[in-house]
UniProtKB/TrEMBL annotation:
<feature type="transmembrane region" description="Helical">
    <location>
        <begin position="95"/>
        <end position="128"/>
    </location>
</feature>
<dbReference type="InterPro" id="IPR052155">
    <property type="entry name" value="Biofilm_reg_signaling"/>
</dbReference>
<feature type="transmembrane region" description="Helical">
    <location>
        <begin position="172"/>
        <end position="192"/>
    </location>
</feature>
<feature type="transmembrane region" description="Helical">
    <location>
        <begin position="212"/>
        <end position="243"/>
    </location>
</feature>
<dbReference type="InterPro" id="IPR000160">
    <property type="entry name" value="GGDEF_dom"/>
</dbReference>
<protein>
    <submittedName>
        <fullName>Bifunctional diguanylate cyclase/phosphodiesterase</fullName>
    </submittedName>
</protein>
<keyword id="KW-1133">Transmembrane helix</keyword>
<dbReference type="InterPro" id="IPR001633">
    <property type="entry name" value="EAL_dom"/>
</dbReference>
<feature type="transmembrane region" description="Helical">
    <location>
        <begin position="140"/>
        <end position="160"/>
    </location>
</feature>
<feature type="domain" description="GGDEF">
    <location>
        <begin position="284"/>
        <end position="416"/>
    </location>
</feature>
<feature type="region of interest" description="Disordered">
    <location>
        <begin position="1"/>
        <end position="33"/>
    </location>
</feature>
<dbReference type="InterPro" id="IPR035919">
    <property type="entry name" value="EAL_sf"/>
</dbReference>
<dbReference type="Pfam" id="PF00563">
    <property type="entry name" value="EAL"/>
</dbReference>
<dbReference type="InterPro" id="IPR043128">
    <property type="entry name" value="Rev_trsase/Diguanyl_cyclase"/>
</dbReference>
<keyword id="KW-0472">Membrane</keyword>
<dbReference type="InterPro" id="IPR029787">
    <property type="entry name" value="Nucleotide_cyclase"/>
</dbReference>
<feature type="domain" description="EAL">
    <location>
        <begin position="425"/>
        <end position="682"/>
    </location>
</feature>
């Protein structure tokens, strides 16, 4: 049967608690594993022969007087244990031996010693068939020996002997003996686990129920076999049909549970398996490594989803090949994978493992003869002595992964001492997450709008939406602090969804009031990497019937440089929808002119740090003029931020800047205040002779 058939290892399907210290398998690991399995087989067989020899020596008179029914049932017990029933894992407590049907009957009929002799041989066969370590086979043998002793003890106390014509009392006493068997075996397993140096997770209720039901079915078949044997030995082998039915039940339950924990595409364990493994901490130091493929969306768009799926399968295969068997490789979904590394002593060792994984993925993948290059950003979270749940570890690893993307590194380790991981910010993050999920009317999350003015005409050409949060205890929290706290975490997606919804709804309200205004919304690197923002914008535009040209998204240079290929795919789709894209804070990052030329941008926004100083600093003025000229050459609008006085405004007009925003015209304000401001506003045009800063002599 397939339950105990060794599976070819394409990907780790569970994390074993046995194995060497964390590292990476060498070339001779398969050979070393084969040698260890042969050694375990020899030791197990030798120990079984010695144990049976001792039992035979102690009770040779008993064995000499046993009838043919005993020897037939003994032979069947050894044969059927060549196909043991294995549930979710290979632990001794999760293995059901079909031989217990016969050994339980032998214990009731002929006592402990004959039953133990058969059970030892059967356990040895099952251990060899499952390729278990000697220690696990020994645990399995001890559990069954104690169980047989408990059942035989109950039978001896009540003088139970199954004859050719059993009565109701025999049936009741047999059930009591079977119950003693079950309590003894699983009670011993639970006690050993509790007394050990680590805690094991409790089996899931469904699995434990199937396990107990199958065990009880096998045990209660025993007296039926015994009664049948007394009628005629020819009928005894027919019990194999009943054993087959029990096996099918166990196998079906095991396959169902494995399916719940395995990713259908790659065959790797899924998020549920990771949660179970993290919960089974076992007193070890661990590291969770979260891998996000950097250019997977490009492959999907260029070569199609079929090739993209094949790439994910190949990535899974390669990760499974380089990760040792005692670690766990998981596909979380999409192009995200995770590795749970056991027995990691600290961040340096976790970094070495991450670099090894990155090296493995950096080699091209051959798909239909075409080499495909893929890299991964890896975030690392360490599980300490106090223990972390799976959700917390994933949040920390994801924060580290986005840190790596933003810095342009391939690997980053989550550090609680970093500024954005401080307890104060974590508390603020928890409050923000709660406010966004509750989505109550009085959650304090509001949007202010700052007008953008066309410099040449003085007309209001749009507004920029700026986030504010009136925290119940901290007071007003500005956008910089909110973004700093939320961006490295999944909360950023919730925040962006909320802002997009409120902005589109407000634009629809202005349009219905007869004053259509274009609104610009800042989006983060995380939003662009996720890719779902285009779907969300399209859905909102359809829901509120808002023209796409009334919404503009602002991205930063840091978001662009973290993963330019993935960002390009997202903003290209938005551009095709008619949503304008603005490059915010231009001049403060490291974007190349090549990226600037390729991106479907509508405008560049000159960072306020240059605009504020251009009236007094020649260098800042030169930078501003250069950016305006570059935008003009590329056919883009140039918008200046931080215009706070008339002199700066006139200098921008002289340089040919298209639009400006800042306190010189208006501060950010709530929608109602903006409506009143618009009613009072009169366009202001710059004079013909602007003030100027003298140019440096050449």
């Amino acid at each position: 049967m397939d339950a105990a058939r060794p599976r070819k290892r394409v990907a780790n399907t569970h994390a074993s608690s046995d194995g060497a210290a964390s590292g990476h398998p060498g070339r001779d690991e398969p050979r070393r594993g084969a040698v260890q399995r042969r050694r375990a087989l020899v030791v197990t067989a030798g120990a079984a022969l010695v144990a049976d020899g001792v039992l035979w020596a102690l009770g040779w008179r008993t064995f000499a007087g046993l009838p043919g029914a005993y020897w037939l049932m003994a032979a069947l017990a050894v044969v059927v244990d060549a196909r043991p029933y294995v549930l979710a894992d290979r632990r001794a407590s999760s293995v059901i031996l079909p031989s217990i049907c016969f050994t339980f009957a032998i214990a009731l009929a002929w006592g402990v010693v004959p039953a133990l002799a058969v059970q030892v041989a059967a356990v040895a066969v099952a251990g060899a068939r499952m390729r278990q370590a000697v220690r696990r086979t020994f645990h399995l043998a001890v559990q069954h020996a104690v169980a047989i002793g408990a059942a035989a003890g109950v039978a001896a106390v009540v003088s139970l002997r199954i004859g050719p014509q059993p009565d109701w009392d025999d049936a009741v006493l047999t059930v009591a003996a079977a119950a003693a068997w079950i309590v003894a075996r699983y009670g011993l397993a639970a006690g050993v686990a509790r007394m050990g140096s680590h805690r094991r997770r409790r089996p899931r209720g469904r699995r434990r129920g199937v396990e107990v039901l199958a065990t009880a079915s096998l045990l209660l078949l025993g007296p039926i076999v015994l009664a049948t044997a007394q009628v005629g030995l020819a009928f005894v082998p027919l019990v194999l049909l009943a054993l087959h039915a029990v096996h099918r039940m166990v196998r079906s339950a095991g396959e169902s549970e494995r399916a719940e924990r395995v990713d259908a595409l790659t065959g790797l364990p899924n998020r549920r398996a990771l949660q179970a493994s993290v919960g089974d901490k076992g007193g070890r130091h661990r590291a969770l490594l979260l891998l996000d493929l950097d250019r997977f969306r490009t492959v999907n768009d260029a070569l199609g989803h079929r090739v993209g799926d094949r790439l994910l399968v190949e990535v899974a295969r390669r990760l499974a090949e380089v990760v040792p068997a005692h670690d766990l490789v998981v596909r979380l979904g999409g192009d995200e994978f995770a590795v749970l590394a056991n027995r990691v002593d600290g961040a340096p060792e976790a970094r070495r493992i991450a670099c090894h994984l990155a090296e493995a993925l950096n080699r091209p993948f051959a798909l239909d003869g075409l080499p495909v290059d893929v890299s991964a950003s890896i975030g690392i979270a360490l599980q300490g002595d106090s223990g972390d749940d799976c959700a917390a570890l994933l949040r920390e690893a994801e924060a580290a992964m986005y840190d790596a993307k933003q810095r342009g590194d391939q690997v980053a380790v989550y550090g609680p001492d970093a500024a954005h991981h401080s307890p104060d910010r974590l508390t603020l993050l928890a409050d923000l997450r709660r406010a966004l999920r509750d989505d109550a009317p009085g959650d304090g999350i509001v949007l202010f709008y700052q007008p953008q003015i066309a410099i040449a005409t003085g007309e209001v050409v749009g507004v920029e939406a700026l986030l504010r949060w009136q925290h119940p205890e901290r007071g007003m929290v500005g956008p910089e602090e909110l973004i700093r706290v939320a961006e490295p975490t999944p909360v950023m997606r919730l925040l962006t969804q909320r802002v997009l919804h409120d902005v589109v709804a407000q634009v629809a309200a202005w349009r219905d009031a007869g004053r259509p205004l274009r609104a610009a919304v800042n989006v983060s690197a995380r939003d662009l990497h996720a890719g779902g923002i285009a779907d969300r914008v399209e859905q909102l535009l359809d829901e509120y019937a808002v023209p796409a040209d009334l919404i503009q998204l602002e991205i930063t240079e840091s978001a662009l440089m973290a993963d330019p290929h993935r960002v390009l795919n997202t903003i290209t789709r938005l551009d095709r929808m008619g949503v304008a894209i603005s490059l915010d804070d231009f001049g403060t990052g490291y974007s190349s002119l090549q990226h600037l030329r390729r991106l479907p941008l509508a405008e560049v926004k000159i960072d306020r740090s240059f605009v504020l100083g251009m009236a007094t600093d020649r260098g800042d003025a030169a930078i501003v003029r250069s950016v305006i000229g570059l935008a003009e050459a590329l056919g883009l609008r140039a918008v200046a931020e931080g215009v706070e006085d008339e002199r700066t405004w006139r200098l921008l007009a002289a340089a040919g800047c298209h639009a400006a925003q800042g306190w010189f015209h208006a501060r950010p304000m709530p929608p109602d205040d903006l409506a009143r401001w618009l009613a009072r506003y009169r366009p202001l045009r710059p004079a013909a002779s602007p003030l100027a800063v003298s140019r440096p002599s050449t």
